[in-house]
User: Fold Transport permease protein from Phytohabitans flavus.
Amino acid sequence: MSGSREATVLTTTVDERRATERPQAQQLKWALADGWTITLRDLKHWAAQPWQIVFGLLFSVMLVLMFGYLFGGAIEVPGGGNYREFLLPGMFALTMLFGLEATYTAVTTDADRGVTDRFRAMPMAGSAVVMGRASADMLNSMLTLAAMVACGLAVGWRWHEGVGATLAAFGLLLLLRFALLWLGIWLALVLRSPEALMALQILVWPLGFLSNVYVAPQTMPGWLGTLAEWNPLSATVAAARELFGNPGWGGDSWVAQHSILMAFLWPAVLTAVFFPLSVRAYRRLSR
Assistant:
């Protein structure tokens, strides 16, 4: 406990000295450099243990094959169309959501092993650790999304709009991941327990299935369908289907008619709430 207090005092003293010795632009430069150092550290861990990424990719591919081939023949797409083309944009978004568990696990593991406390004792920016973690996770998410797209192309999924709309759809998927990782970082810093991952999974899986990923909300009871429509995941899925030109669930509600707008608004709200909370939770560790 005393060591944690000394680390906190040291970090505070160094931060105060850096704030007085360097102008604001220089502080930003060093904060970005510190964050990149943490990113490289996380990437080296993945290079040393690639099986974690491989298993994550295989799990996502398994879901595509299971729902696309085992259950796809029994599910009718609203308005007609190929179910796998209906499914794949939802699977892309669901993979971004499942990344929340990987973020939580990595942050809590560092905290549990004392790595985070050692970072706090170093002369680095207070936001560097969380920014580095976010950058590493976004790079991993891009790799995962690329693997999912390759799997989708292999099973017959295609986009039917222009390159600009397609890139915009991928951008919205990564924007959702960026917003959700701040939720994962904040939960990890607040709970600080690897054992709480089970509780997080209880949150993530219902959120993923209570959406338009697999079926249309119109097929659900009225109140449940409304919840599914307003799910942030559903907004990104609906927007991606529209931009890819894939079959969608449509709907007459306001949120259904403005899916692209909601696909921007939900991540913006999540980031605005949980990014500052994540930085604040990191700075309050061991106090």
Summary: The chain has one domain: 2-283. Residues 83-112 form the longest helix (30 residues).
